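Feature request, filed as a ticket because there's no other form

It would be nice if the structure record came with a short human-readable summary line next to the tokens. Right now we just get the raw output. Example of a typical job, pasted below so the devs can see what we mean:
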Amino acid sequence: MPDLLGYLQEDIDKNPEAGRFILTGSQNLAISQAVSQSLAGRAGILHLLPFSRGELSARWLPEDLYTLLWSGGYPRIYDRRIPAHQWLGDYVATYVQRDVRQLLNVTDLSRFTTFLRLCASRTAQELNLSSLGADAGVSHNTANAWLSVLESSFLCHRLPAWHKNLKKQLVKAPKLHFFDSGLVCYLLGIQAPEQLRHHPLRGAIFESWVFSELYKQKIHHGDSFNGFHFRESRGLEVGFVEVQADSLCFTEAKSGETLSFDSFKNLQTLEKWLGEHGVVEKIRKALVYGGNESQTRHGIHVIPWNQL
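Raw output as currently delivered:
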């Protein structure tokens, strides 16, 4: 009912008492061509992404990591008991391939589907639009336009690179992350949780899942997400940087169930590197992994996947 907002504006202007109406919907009104009235200045907006791990009740939460990653977090999979692969297939066929494609005026469904799957294969990787467009058979500008609509539709996010007066020493390309690991698994053709356990993109899917959990912790409370990734031109990189008022929090993601000395290497090297480059903020370090034991090692807070 896109005309509803016009009627509401008139009613709200007559009686501006807050909280009389709650509107819910699955589409971002900012990109809907059918909506001409945005209720600007009259509405508060809260974006709700698929369930976070913490939002899944005890009776819904999968017992193992790979089932959780493969299933994703879309609510109907859980409250309607719909098999994840079946629901995600219907979701791609209806919302993604129909509604999103119509927003873009895409006439070649095959090419757009290829583009979508190529994006999924690049989750947790630095984004090169020229390479992505070439692989999909479209121009750099088309790839950027298509990806922008996927972002506005809350399917993925470009995580910018963090830098603080470091200029040439940092690689400025953003990282691409999908919000739902189950959708990525579907687009990559992973048909069962056990296949994910041995998949070459297992680590990337886990890293994007960690990103989405960190993002949801902010967005679902109405806060902004002030997050980045870090990569120095000579190879040093850390998955996530959260800029806070008095500190910087660096977080790594490792999908393995056990940790070795090398698991902590980047976070340890980073702190020394930051000191050498005049970063004076307090540094906090965390590592999220696929195991079950919470601990502190080398000054790094180690967080199991099921306690994130």
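Something like this underneath would help us a lot:
Residues 84-104 form the longest helix (21 residues).
The chain has a mean pLDDT of 90.
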